[in-house]
Amino acid sequence: KEIAVKAIKKMIRNYKLEIRNLRVVFGPSIHPCCYEVSKELTDKFEKKFGEAGTVVRNNKYYLNLEAINRAQLQKMGIKGYNIKNNKYCTHCEDKRYYSYRRDGKGTGRIVTGVMINSGM
Questions:
Q1: pTM of the shown model
Q2: For residue 51, with 0-12 CB atoms within 10 Å meaning exposed, 13-18 middle and 19 or more buried, which class applies?
Q3: What is the pLDDT of residues 104-119, one digit of tens each?
Q4: What b/e string do you get for 82-95 counting C-beta neighbours within 10 Å, with b at 16 or more?
Q5: What's the CA gap between 49 and 116, in Å, rounded?
Q6: Going by C-beta distance under 8 Å and a sequence separation of 6 or more, which residues neighbour residue 77?
Q7: CA–centroid distance for 99 within its chain
Q8: Which of 3, 6, 71, 91 is most buried by its number of CB atoms within 10 A?
Q9: What is the rounded CA–CA span in Å between residue 24 and residue 32?
């Protein structure tokens, strides 16, 4: 649903931000090592975003959400060097993070934050 792009566009509009000044840091999320999905779902993502966000390994299909979001943000003008990834996979890091995919319904939640630093 291109949530990151929509959120950034709204921030630019509401706070008069310049795209060249934006820095993005992805928080922990499920990574392509663990985010197995159906071929039909990867086909939908490839049709909309290209192959950068899909991985095929041992005849199984995986999504790379960070790559999909990175491509969208770069397309809107955010430079690649201004996009950083937190390397933690919420599915792999069972002692640190909740994961619906790993733990099922009733697991905890992760909060996402957005910050505007006017001192930059």
A1: 0.86
A2: exposed
A3: 888 888 887 777 776 6
A4: ebebeeebbbeeee
A5: 28
A6: 19, 20
A7: 15
A8: 91
A9: 20
